[in-house]
Amino acid sequence: MKTICKMAALSVVCISLYLLSGRIGPAGAVSASEGQAHSVVRGDTLWDVTEKYLANPFFWPKIWQYNAQIKNPNLIYPGDQIRIPNPEELARMGAAEHPQPAQAALNQPAAAQTTPNQAVSSIEGPLTAVGGYLVERDLFESSGFILPFGENAGDGAIVSTWEEKVLLTDGNVVHVNLGSQNGVKYGDLFQVMHIGDDVVHPGTRYKMGKQVTVQGILKITSVQENLSTARIIKSYDPIMVGDMVRSYHPQPLIGPDNFTSEDKSIQGVIVQNSLGKSILGVRDTVYLDMGTENSVAPGDRFVIYRSGPPPQVSKKDAALSGIQGKDFPMDIMGELVVLSAMKNTSTAVVVEELYEIKPGDHVKYSPQSLPPIKKYDMD
Questions:
Q1: CA-CA-CA-CA torsion sign (154, 159, 164, 166)
Q2: CA distances from 132 to 112, 145, 193 (A)
Q3: What would the 3-class secondary structure string for 315-348 be?
């Protein structure tokens, strides 16, 4: 399955490279010169459509902005026609800061586009061969975290807007309940965060806190004593009145130079995916049930493993052979790298998938990247 996924990802990258250079459009789309359009089919989302045509799913607000008939980006229906902006139109809409994939990406999996000062990422094979960063800044910033109960997510909140819509995106103007008395100044940047549902540990069923997703970034445009006006300069997901805000200072991205090789004895569990997915793969971000108090640090590598009987096992033959559940070996599911760590939890990205990875799978610290083979020695 892994091979098929990688071939599919490679195909998406290749098609997207041609698309962004204006040479061809995706199969089934109208050519760029005539104006590209996508006919929605059952199961489509703006995220998926954007990834298909523009290679980077974080361009979805641009697609939404380009299609004024879409009132709610979460509600598109089979038969709807979605127009796709060409590179020139994207640039006019303010997307020029997102570079096109480099030619080198033709030989890499569908890793992320990068900001101008970053090298193209590759998370294919052994991590010692990774170039650039593990994920682009958009994915790094939007991965979110688990907020312990009783702690504040931010410094303030979005309290109002003159926009005549509930879901806000790039370019929309909002008001936040922070002002000069809070030290806010013109040009300050703030992250927008949405407080989600309780996060429940898949093993112990203990409630660990609230899931916090980072929705986007605001820039302060005017300041009063206790209220400021801000413009949304980047949205990863729709922003709403009531979302929390906190001062934003870009953190360093994680690359191979940041990988740790200390002798740590750390084990834990994948709690859940940041997007709530039940089956995980390469480039999915996940939350772990351990953090700085367990000596977890950004750049730590963990093998993902599972023990006990596999889902497909002949209980009859196993019983005849005297095999019990505890006799089955630990099998490696994949590998992940920590992007950020809090006190008792951390956020990581899956960088290698050997089998389907799920919340509840165990992880174990590894000072070195795993070799690209299917079976490993856990000792």
A1: positive
A2: 10, 24, 28
A3: HHHHHHCCCCHHHCCCEEEEEEEEEEECCCCEEE
pLDDT digits (tens, 9 = 90+) for 228-254: 999 999 999 999 999 999 999 888 888
Q: Which two structure tokens, joined as six digits, stand for 292?
A: 């700085």
147: how many CB neighbours lie within 10 A of its CB? 22
Write the single-letter amino acid at 188: D
Residue 69: name the closest of 60, 82, 58, 50 by CA: 82
What residues form DSSP beta bridges with 231?
A: 173, 219
- Angle subtended by helix axes 46-54 and 2-20, to nearest 10: 70
Mean per-residue pLDDT for 130-158? 84
| 199 Cβ contact partners less than 8 Å away, ≥ 6 residues apart | 146, 207, 208, 209, 210, 211, 271, 272, 287
> Which two structure tokens, joined as six digits, stand for 7?
């071939």
How far the first Cα of the chain sits from its last, in Å, is 27
CA distance linking residue 153 with residue 212, whole number of Å: 8
Residues β-bridged to residue 82: 38
Instruction: Compute the average pLDDT of residues 142-159.
Output: 90
Predicted pLDDT at 208:
93
Q: pTM, whole model, 2 decimals? A: 0.62
